[in-house]
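Lecture notes, unit on binding sites. The following record was shown on slide 14. It pairs a sequence with 2-oxoglutaric acid.
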Amino acid sequence: MQHHTPFYYHNGLTPDQLQFFEKNGYLHFKSFLPSETVHELIREIEKVEAFLIRNQQDKVNGIPLKFGINTNGQKFIQRIAFASRYSDMLHHFLQHERFQQLIALLGHHEGRIGEFEKDGLVVNHYLNTPGSEYKQLGWHTDSPRDLFLGSRIKPMLNVGLHLDDCPIQNGGLRLLSGTHKQGMLRLLFRKKYFIDNKPDRNEIGFDITAGDLTIHDGRLWHRVQQSPLQGEASRRRVMYIPIVTGAYQPKNHLSRTPLYHSIGSLLNRKSRLAYALTNQQQAATTNVLKQTSK
Ligand SMILES: O=C(O)CCC(=O)C(=O)O
Ligand SMILES: [Fe+2]
């Protein structure tokens, strides 16, 4: 696996950082957040989680929550969408000028923090326990979701705030540098979406300490490698903030569940999921061909 030298963030992006991102499609900043902020965020997320469980909610703005059993035998939430909807603290946190500064990575596109769009502020919580439903995530890009929603792929960035230490050997984020510049066919077919968990000899991994930030272009291929550890030592929490472009498309409590989410929760047998995804890829391709021929 390949290594890289991370950057440090000082009030705005440098020409070097902009150039690195344009070429490779990702960036890694060490210590973007101080540890007090990381602790505050973790406490706040726990409050939101307790609230959602108490209210027996299974979706936020149409996006299903993913549940599992924690190391203490209690139910917990392994993926929360639109987390800032239930927290003033998280809402204010997203308004920070530092996040506005990152929009510059979209170049000439007009961008904004997608607090109320796509899946909003997402909290991912990976854990290896017998009751965990979320230990890894197969190869994918974040872009085809646009196609399934019937629109063109628009430029977008995913900003990851890492809340636990995760050295490379503990698994975590893996990506294929430069794949944000591939054509549409490679974007759709380079690997089997979400089914393929195999390491790639060109993949890049990260030595993450809590408070680090990563950013990737929505078109870049990436995955999450399962931790070789069990229980508490395998815990990995990451918040994702989307930076989006194009027409403003906010969601609310009346929003419908997108097809790719309902299929995911209806079918959990791998072969049937693979079949459904192949059909989705075909539908997406037809969609692309229709759009490119317009
Ligand atoms: O957990 C991560 O670092 C990546 C998650 C991801 O790629 C996704 O939720 O789309
Ligand atoms: Fe992703």
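Take-home: Confidence is low (pLDDT under 50) at residues 267-272.
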